[in-house]
Amino acid sequence: MYSQAKVIAGGLAHIPVVVAVFYFILTTFNKRALKFVEKTKVKKTEAKVAEPNKVAVSKTESSKVEAPKTEALKVVKKKHADVPVNIYRPKTPYEGTVIENYSLLKEGAIGRVNHITFDLKDSDPFLNYVEGQSIGIMPAGEDANGKPHKLRLYSIASTRHGDNFSGNTVSLCVRQLQYEKDGETINGVCSTYLCNIKAGDKVKITGPVGKEMLLPDEEDANIVMLATGTGIAPMRAYLRRMFEATEKEKNNWNFKGKAWLFMGAPKSANLLYEEDLQRYLTDYPDNFKYTKAISREQQNTKGGRMYIQDRVLESANELFNMIEDEKTHIYLCGLKGMEPGIDEAMTKAAEEKGLNWSELRPQLKKAGRWHVETY
Ligand code: FAD
Ligand code: A2P
Prior knowledge:
Bound molecules: flavin-adenine dinucleotide, adenosine-2'-5'-diphosphate
Largest sheet: 6 strands, antiparallel
Strand content: 15-25%
Number of helices: 10
Structural class: alpha/beta
Radius of gyration: 34 Å
Number of domains: 2
CATH architecture of the largest domain: 3-Layer(aba) Sandwich
Distance between the termini: 115 Å
Shape: globular
CATH class of the largest domain: Alpha Beta
Strand order of the largest sheet: 4-3-8-1-2-5
């Protein structure tokens, strides 16, 4: 039988054991709790570092890809996702070899306009492009500050299959810039360089760039083209794609719509690619219409120089019947100076049809049917 004193002594003897167990539980819990806090701290720091990046990425993305506002716009953006851009950049341009360089002008023409073709076959990665894009040219030599010349953009005048249909050339249509300053003739750096290069020369090429002037995929689209001077370059590519026999065999795209080219040139001798255009008129009278404004040989109704905007006004009714058809796209390329004149003509032409051009133009633009590249 236990005595009361023994029970008390036994109870007291267990105290250290209880304290030890209690201490063990407390430290284990504390260690775990500490680990949890550490882990949370690390995670929070990671999150702090990650957050700005996330924001930065989404900011850049959002500035790159504007949120599509309409279904039509969404479709346009999606369609162009596979168009090649910036395969070659200024720091590492492709050195293409000149295949040919010849004048596009006839006897008595004003200025100098050349057709120049470059070989792309040795480019790696391959420099491919589609109709309506541009390439950059970096002229040889240095500027007044001893720095390499900056690149200049030129609209591509060939189809993706190239002029010889081999699929590995690119062609340009270049006008030499020349103007008078203080009694002296100034020659544009890059355009003069390009007009003077010879077959076999190496030229630094960048790009391709641009998605503004691409053709729609639809074979029954209507294509209205408003060009001045070298603004014919992308239009030449479109028309070859539509009407050149070998091109049509290669591209599997059987154009069934109406193509209407308004072309502005100072003189008949300055009309570019005229023989090809006449051939397309003969071969495709139902699909191709060609209206010229020869500024220094023809006069508008006011007795001034005939410009393409005067021709647009003459054809207002027919043109706006086409524009009202949602399969019609309009392309404007060439002199920047023609834009106000074209706008004015479109305003008048629209009025004649009871339409408001200042409302219609943004709608066409939004729908991806109004394409402008002027310089
Ligand atoms: P620069 O030596 O760069 O001289 C141009 C500068 O000279 C101007 O910036 C201006 O400061 C000055 N200047 C020009 N005219 C005058 C004047 N009358 N009086 C006083 N100063 C003047 N060109 C083509 O030939 N074909 C094309 O297909 C083509 N496509 C283009 C596509 C795009 C998207 C762009 C943006 C441009 C295109 N250009 C095209 C124009 C081309 O890029 C060059 O701007 C053009 O060839 C002139 O370049 P340059 O080096 O010869 O002239
Ligand atoms: P012009 O020079 O007679 O005034 P190019 O590039 O071969 O010189 O051709 C450009 C064509 O565009 C020329 O016929 C030129 O006429 C014409 N042009 C010049 N200014 C305008 C303008 N503001 N609007 C439309 N066409 C223009």
